[in-house]
Amino acid sequence: MQAAEMNAMRAAEGLLALSQQEELVDLQDYPLSASEDEGDSDGERKHQKLLESIGSLDGKKRWKLAERSEASLKVSEFNVSSEGSGEKLLLSDLLEPAKTSSSLAAVKKQLSRVKSKKAVELPLNKQEVERINREVAFNKTSQTLSKWDPIVLKNRQAEQLVFPLEKEPASFVPIEHVFGSWKARTPLEQEIFNILYKNKQPVTDPLLTPMEKASLKAMSLEEAKMRRAELQRARALQSYYEAKARREKKIKSKKYHKIVKKGKVKKALKEFEQLQKVNPAAALEELEKIEKARMMERMSLKHQNSGKWAKSKAIMAKYDLEARQAMQEQLAKNKELTQKLQVVSESEEEEKGTEEEELLVPDAVNEIQMCTDGPNPWMLRNCNSDAKGEIQKDPEQPPEPMVQEVSESEEEEKPGGEEEVLLQEFEERRSLRKSSELSKNAEPVGSQKTKDSSSQEVLSELKALTQKLNQKNCQSKKQNVNLVKTVLQGQREECAPEEEEPLLLQRPERVQTLEDLEDLDHEEYSQIRELSRPVLEGERTERTTDNQTDASKGKKKEQMIDLQNLLTTKSPSVKSLAVPTAIEELEDEEEKHQKQIIKEAFAGDDVIRDFLKEKKEAVKASKPKDVDLTLPGWGEWGGIGLKPSAKKRRRFLIKAPEGPPRKDKNLPNVIISEKRNIQAAAHQVQVLPYPFTHHQQFERTVQTPIGSTWNTQRAFQKLTTPKVVTKPGHIIKPIKAEDVGYCSSSRSDLSVTLSNPKRPTGHHKKQLKKNSID
Amino acid sequence: MKVKMLSRNPDNYVRETKLDLQRVPRNYDPTLHPFEVPREYIRALNATKLERVFAKPFLASLDGHRDGVNCLAKHPKSLATVLSGACDGEVKIWNLTNRKCIRTIQAHEGFVRGICTRFCGTSFFTVGDDKTVKQWKMDGPSYGEVEEPLHTILGKTVYTGIDHHWKDPAFATCGQQVDIWDEQRTNPICSMTWGFDSINSVKFNPIETFILGSCASDRNIVLYDMRQATPLKKVILDMRTNTICWNPMEAFIFTAANEDYNLYTFDMRALDTPVKVHMDHVSAVLDVDYCPTGKEFVSASFDKSIRIFPVNKSRSREVYHTKRMQHVICVRWTADSKYIMCGSDEMNIRLWKANASEKLGVLASRERAAQDYNQKLKEKFQHHPQIKRIARHRHLPKSIYSQIQEQRIMREARRRKELNRRKHSKPGSVPVVEERKKHVVAVVK
Q: Which chain A residues touch B207 with a CB distance below 8 Å?
């Protein structure tokens, strides 16, 4: 078997290198096939025998064997005994006799040529060939497939894949193409089509009917050219005009614009006058137009100083003369626009005063209405300003002659733009104060008083506040004192009634403190009083400068120390006693010496103590901590170095609940960690999940939030992009080489298959035929 | 006087319509938004629960066949059209939007073994038990015409499967051998065999379109090259492979649905070890089809359920079943990757959502943002036990459930036995074999 395989291998190699055919083996050396290889002398003999026996079976056809003349083991079929069995006939043997004769030169040449030629190998058997073919084809195919490796890898690792991968070009097929092959078949369809054709409706080209086409054709070339030129001119003119307008619009100079405006107005006036002369009816119409404009102006809030610009100017008006003027101009414009034109049409310069009066009459009327009825925004402002101006300038004057006054004051104030700005500022307050004003109007004499009343109110409020504060102080002191009072009932009776007086504020305080001090100085016998003293101590130290108090304090302090000494001094004395006794026990010097050495040697590591310390720490760490919720400064006066009182601290300290006893409570040499929380463990990840290599990595991913609560909108969107995006209703086609930038082979698979020379179709066909015949 | 002013772009604070929410400037200082992990954890938990609440994958059942549905085919150009062939030789064309049958053809006598559409969508091919290949027009016969095939090819043997080339007018049939046909000719342009057993199915590679894969009943999968008209390689598995499906995004990857309850994903360049073994079914897997995105595939099984597997996971992410659905014979994933169709023994074609809890229809942008966020949260906390428990929970029919238990016990016993054997024999004499390598018997060159 092995030999056969070897053979096959060699044969395969031979086939692969068939085209080159460089190395050829001598016929002598190279065994042709497995069967021949085996053919030893022994086998050959057997073969001969077999042939003989076959030949003897039907003796008729066989010629008689030649007589044997020499002794030989083998007798050939062809009457030639091959001497030296197993030896092959070589070409050189044949050539040997030819050497001598010179006439055989041509034959010699031929023979030598034959000698130099190489023998063709035997073809391999079919299975082998197929297998080799398959292997070659597979290698080729895998090579073509591995060009996809980078793309596949990229797609697998992609943050986001959007399907379909290729952009579909929007293609609109004209309807004629779609319905090109379609024909009306059913009776209904045919009927419809008949109707359509009768009317020559466009079926294939839906844009133009034949009529339209004909009309299109009717226009001559010259006409079309002319029209085109005309259109061109018009377009050019328009563009010039537009360009000019744009240029003019861009000019920033105010002066220029003013001049332009004035020019326009003048022009308009001129035209109007001309119209009046020429065509009075048209002039009337023009007038009506102007009237309409006036009405519009009255209706709108334009030029009423209520716009954005006006408001900003109003703010600036205080400081800026220009702004003031601008505002005034605007108001003037408003007035101008709202004027009735009949007046204008008559002579203007003759009677200024009357005109003004006339102008003002409706305003005044409105004003009165306003005051009584309700708010009309811009009229009210005027009214208000009048009223205010009056108040400021002559508050003592009664409001009955107000109507006349108004005109005067307005005249006075007009030049000064300040006033109007101020008016706006006071607008908000107006509504509030309106009622009071009304009342003021009602009682003319008491105007001054009412004006002052506001300031008085403030004062009264302040007073009330101070009173309250005083009362509070008084009460707190009272409470403090009450504490003391309970202890020293008898001596404090005099001051108590004084303190209870609420109205006299300052005196009782002083009295109280002084008396307190006196009391305290005189009597120092009771300890209870000393306990209560610290409460008052702060106050006292602040207020008193008396020397006597110092003495008393000294005494108090001494007493305090006495009490504490008992506790504090004891401990050191005990210690001092204990240490020497311990040492005295180990009197033996040698032992002591040795211990010393050991101690020195292991001076660094006191294991037991370390362990105990560690355990203590662990216990301490595992104990639940109290929660301190005190907020320094809350409900107290603020300041630097503020400390919340002990009471408060106690009040807001939440004591942690005592946990279950530790498991290592009774095991002195063990620390059992109790960090693991069973309740939490049910929600925690026990094993590190697959793609992560370290627990910190995993923790980090969990800890970084991705929600929009913690991230900006952009980051949020980036963090939450889905891995695969598909468009609904779109067909996703398999990836193509063109999509990813590769060029696919130009020839189709089918054509390649058809042109394939080693197509086994015919062979198979034969086989199939054979099968069918069998 | 020049006054310099701060100017803000109104786009930053003006909303487009009055229905929009006011844009509120936010302070992202982390101290102002504490407990981010617990809050997100709770959100993830809720998202997972809601996903389970809204998981209603079953959309419709198309009934009309009078025998079991044997094969399904997608229309390459129209999402709404599906073709199905039944065991009584009937082919039906369905409209999915109306959920109605458009057209019925009595195509063959006996089973319709295979059906496939032409790449342009104008016609389709069927093969049947009556040894014929027929080409049909996709549009119905017009007025007054008789329903008949465009072409009929009479073969000598029964064809068991058919697939059309993705670009060229050629198709491949399988039966005794794999034949490749030019549409214009009545004889195959080439036929390839390797071995003598009958071939169950043949599939063209959608990317490198000259490659074919077939699976035969002598347990092997054979790959062919159409251009060179030669088989390439053969892999023999433990049990018979029913069908294969190529990944539409990765040219060299295909998945084989096997009788031994598993699916095997192979890289065709290295057939000796599958890339992944997908195991969850409890009975023979009959059909498999890839999602057009190439990230997942769906498998139909004899155990009356269909399962969806991610390509790189060995366990399924989803299982669909209904009480009335019997052995599922064929399954297809629609070309927009949103739906799954399966045809089963009890004559119905069922339409499922590919993502059980996905909302169908147009989503508002805010809705989509919320959905994406929820999806990311679920992914982020998927390893946490409480969330994993909810996300993994599926109701299964009792038969499947008990079979899973049984197989688990069997697997455990086998594992234990192997462990024991390893323990009591000379170290190294019982090697540890990967699960992937266990199922491949041989690769033949």
A: 148, 734-737
Q: Which of A135, A186, A749 sits opposite B143 (nearest CB)?
A: A186
Check whether residue B227 and residue B284 sit in a common domain.
Answer: yes
Instruction: Indicate the residue among B353, B379, B399 that finishes a domain.
Output: B353
The residue that leads in pLDDT, A397 or B233, is B233
Q: Could you give the CA distance from residue A237 to residue A34 in angstroms, rounded to a whole number?
A: 104
Q: Is B43 within the bounds of a domain? A: yes
Residue B2 domain-assigned?
A: no
Strand, helix or coil for residue B412: helix
B108 and B168 together in one domain: yes
| Spatial distance between the Cα atoms of A468 and B434, rounded to a whole number of angstroms | 90
* Residue pLDDT, tens place only, A615-653: 989 888 888 888 888 887 777 777 777 778 888 888 889
- CB distance B288 to B243 below 8 Å: yes
Q: Which residues of B touch A761 (CB under 8 A)?
A: 188-191, 229
Cβ pair B40, B381 in contact under 8 A: yes
Q: What are phi and psi of B80, to 5 degrees?
A: -85, -5
Residues B374 and B231 occupy one common structural domain: no
Phi, psi at residue B342, to the nearest 5°? Answer: -140, 140
**Facing residues of B173 across strands?**
B162, B179
Q: Measured between CB atoms, does B144 come within 8 Å of chain A? A: yes
**Report field, pTM of the whole predicted structure over 0.80:** no
Same domain for B63 and B39, yes or no, is no
B134 and B242 both lie in a single domain: yes
A with B: how many residue pairs have Cβ under 8 Å apart?
Answer: 208
- For a pLDDT cut of 90, what percent of chain A falls above it? 14
Cβ of B170 within 8 Å of Cβ of A728? The answer is: no
- Between chains, do A163 and B231 touch, taking CB under 8 Å as contact? no
Burial label, A682 (beta-carbon count in 10 A; 0-12, 13-18, 19+): exposed
Residues B45, B76, single domain; the answer is no
Which chain B residues are within 8 Å of A712, Cβ to Cβ? 28
Torsion of CA B24, B28, B33, B36, to 10 degrees: 120
* Helices A91-100 + A105-116 axis angle, to 10: 160
Domains identified in chain B, total number: 2
E strand or H helix at B226: none
* Full residue range of the structural domain in which residue B202 is found: 58-353
Q: Which strands make up the sheet holding B112-117, listed edge to edge?
A: B112-117, B123-128, B132-137, B151-154
CA B354 to centroid of chain Cα atoms: 10
Neighbours of B69 (CB within 10 A): 27
User: Which tens digits make up the pLDDT trace of A134-179?
Assistant: 999 999 999 999 999 999 999 999 999 999 887 766 667 766 677 7
ipTM: 0.92
Q: Is the pLDDT of residue B328 over 60?
A: yes
Q: Which pair of structure tokens corresponds to residue A225? A: 């050219």
CB A161 within 8 A of CB B294: no
Residues B370 and B286 in one domain: no
Q: In terms of domains, do B241 and B373 share one?
A: no
| pLDDT tens track for A534-579 | 444 444 444 444 444 444 444 444 444 444 444 334 443 334 444 4
Identify which of B82, B85, B87 has the alpha carbon closest to the alpha carbon of residue B67: B87
Entry field: residues in chain A? 774
- The residue to which tokens 């298959």 are assigned: A753
Number of H helices, E strands in chain B: 5, 29
